DNA sequence: ATTGGCACTCACCGTGGATGAGTGCCAACA
DNA sequence: TGTTGGCACTCATCCACGGTGAGTGCCAAT
């Protein structure tokens, strides 16, 4: 079994390796860390750590490198998440100040986070499946074209164009708006989708009015669908190129995941947070998502009841304590901004 | 001076180099292309091409590689743009079929183009500076919050949240809507911005109504600004990782440009198109944008009078004829979709 | 449990020779 | 004048080789 000092050795190895990018040997450890024992003793500890597969040697006689499992133990038991420096805190608030609507806040958030960590920053839109539909508006354009606007009480707005089967005048449009509103306003997004689908299976579209309602509902359904599959905002993609050396293979899978979004959404969604709302998914733990060489660090945040995540993606060899601290701090800012200060939305 | 055959040699060098990624020597040329002369003769031609700086040798005794200037001559005088194959054409139409609004069409377009070329595809939104504001709508939410929607006749819709200084009732909102509409509807985006700024410098905001108008106009101005600085839609970013070997340095500047957008917008805007609306900007010609190792190929397209560009970005060592053909074909589809078939928007 | 000692492994580095692709030049030729 | 074969030369690439040093594993002594 690994001793207490053994764990400290693991900690030292992780820290030094993240620092220097080079396999760390027993001698280097006794030099850089005051263990008060000789290199031979450290070697014995390292042999045990290797038995437990927490560290590994790239080649027979070289220093050791943390395994994914080693990083996991480090993150779970050894990492101290130190609070951000005042300078970093003011940096965050400077990024976020003066933002109005949700979109804006989220964009600024990822910018702040990528600035802070030098990694790819990611934020989930608050889940809208449980949000309530608070408004539906129709704006008549020329001819049969109508803009359909859907608003939820979490502050998300969506707009999309519908082409009606017939030209309608103002009173007909008003009737349309009233009917669609009574059908959906006050419902959650999830219920809304159900209502629309139910309605779609009802008898044939005979009258002008019925045809118009059907056309509008089709568009509304698309919009609600978009709400359900919460989206991502990202920044700092270019950082991947800078950190390229940390990826054995290519950064292709990461860029692909960034473009796909769906993969990242699922990954972020499935991560299990600890008591502080913090979560990390390390290296091969992401194998199912094609991201075996990447780590994702995330934190929950609250937005008017809806819960979502903000985090970052980078190489397995990343500075977990500092990144966890940054993510946590940003998540707290976000929660404060989106929940407490209602008027700010 | 470079002879006619000399130019054909240049063509062969470009083609083979793009093909094999390796410097091409005189012997390889006589083997792969039926010039009917010996390698020594080709060597003489190559010496001339080198004098003209159209090709260069990576090291003293190795095959030659086209210079940026060489690619330029190739594109301008030697490249034959062959029409796409039927299979490629059907691929495009399959990508584009069933799309509704502008956003959708553009997203599908870049997907088609990236699929076709394996490069990063880029499309500019049609320029909205000259577009007319056709609608302004206010949607009252709870309390003082109002959604401000601006629509242009080119089909672009923007919505944004405004927080008014006071709570207003329905009639006041209606008055607000009427006032803002008379001020702006029918104007071009450019004129609209001017109107708003002019109005902003007028006397103090005394009444509730005046304060509200000012608040709404501030938001409208932001939206109009967004219209003016036409945006981009992109796809295929991950392809950069696949083609990484073609970039001597790193792909960092490219990823950065993709994230910035502004750089790419300026670049695409400044390119000079030929009679067919096609344009290419090669390697060092992009130095001012920090993209000396990339080439951009683009084509104009029309959308209800507004003109914009669709194109792609990739390594200097790219297949120009095929990429030019793809861009041209996609641009034609786009023009047809956005201009002719009005009802489709 | 810790330590110093020691043999051993192996990546890394610089050297050197062989290989071969490709050039530049020249004299001969049509 | 343009074309050609011949030939010497250059230089990247490959591989084999030995030396160096960081680092390990093991063991006997403390």
Describe this structure as you would to a colleague:
By secondary structure, chain A is of the alpha+beta class. Chain A folds into three domains: 4-76, Arc Repressor Mutant, subunit A (Orthogonal Bundle); 86-126 and 230-343, 2-Layer Sandwich (Beta-Lactamase); 133-228, 2-Layer Sandwich (Enolase-like, domain 1). Chain A has 13 helices and ten strands. In chain A, strand 5 (145-152) and strand 6 (157-163) form a beta hairpin. In chain A, helix 6 (102-117) packs antiparallel against helix 13 and helix 7 crosses helix 9. The longest helix of chain A has 21 residues, at 208-228. Chain A is elongated and about 90 Å long.
Give a quick rundown of the structure.
The structure is a homodimer of 345-residue chains. With 345 residues, chain A is an alpha+beta fold.
Q: Give the strand tally of chain A.
A: 10
* First-residue to last-residue Cα separation of chain A: 54 Å
Strand content of chain A: 15-25%
Question: What structural class results from the helix and strand content of chain A?
Answer: alpha+beta
User: How many strands, what sense, and barrel or not for the largest sheet of chain A?
Assistant: 5 strands, antiparallel
Number of alpha- plus pi-helical segments of chain A: 13
Function (chains A, B): Negative regulator of class I heat shock genes (grpE-dnaK-dnaJ and groELS operons). Prevents heat-shock induction of these operons.
Pfam family, one (chains A, B): HrcA
InterPro entries (chains A, B): GAF-like_dom_sf, HrcA, HrcA_C, WH-like_DNA-bd_sf, WH_DNA-bd_sf, WHTH_transcript_rep_HrcA_IDD
Organism (chains A, B): Microbacterium sediminicola
């Amino acid at each position: 079994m690994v001793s207490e000092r053994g764990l400290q050795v693991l900690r030292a190895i992780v820290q030094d390796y993240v620092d220097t990018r080079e396999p760390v040997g027993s001698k280097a450890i006794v030099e850089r860390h005051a263990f008060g024992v000789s290199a031979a003793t450290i070697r014995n500890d390292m042999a045990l750590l290797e038995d437990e597969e927490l560290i590994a040697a790239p080649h027979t006689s070289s220093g050791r490198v943390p395994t994914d499992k080693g990083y996991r133990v480090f993150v779970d038991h050894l990492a101290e998440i130190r609070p951000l420096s005042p300078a970093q805190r003011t940096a965050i608030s400077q990024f976020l100040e003066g933002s109005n609507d949700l979109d804006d806040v989220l964009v600024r958030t990822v910018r702040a986070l990528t600035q802070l960590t030098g990694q790819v920053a990611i934020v989930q839109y608050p889940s809208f499946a449980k949000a309530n539909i608070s408004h539906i508006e129709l704006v008549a354009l020329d001819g049969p074209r109508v803009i359909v606007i859907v608003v939820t009480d979490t502050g998300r707005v969506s707009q999309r164009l519908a082409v009606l089967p017939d030209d309608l005048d103002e009173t007909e449009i008003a009737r349309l708006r009233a009917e669609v509103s009574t059908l959906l306003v006050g419902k959650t997004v999830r219920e809304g989708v159900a209502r629309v689908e139910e309605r779609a299976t009802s008898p044939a579209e005979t009258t002008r009015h019925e045809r118009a309602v059907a056309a509008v509902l089709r568009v509304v359904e698309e919009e609600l669908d978009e709400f359900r599959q919460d989206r991502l905002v990202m920044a700092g993609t270019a950082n991947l190129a800078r950190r390229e050396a940390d990826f054995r293979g290519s950064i292709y899978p990461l860029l692909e995941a960034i473009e796909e979004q769906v993969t990242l959404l699922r990954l972020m969604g499935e991560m299990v947070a600890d008591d502080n709302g913090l979560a990390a998914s390390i290296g091969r733990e992401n194998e199912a998502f094609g991201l075996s060489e990447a780590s994702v660090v995330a934190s929950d945040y609250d937005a008017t009841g809806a819960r979502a995540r903000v985090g970052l993606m980078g190489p397995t060899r990343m500075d977990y304590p500092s990144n966890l601290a940054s993510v946590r701090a940003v998540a707290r800012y976000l929660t404060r901004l989106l929940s407490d200060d209602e008027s700010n939305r």
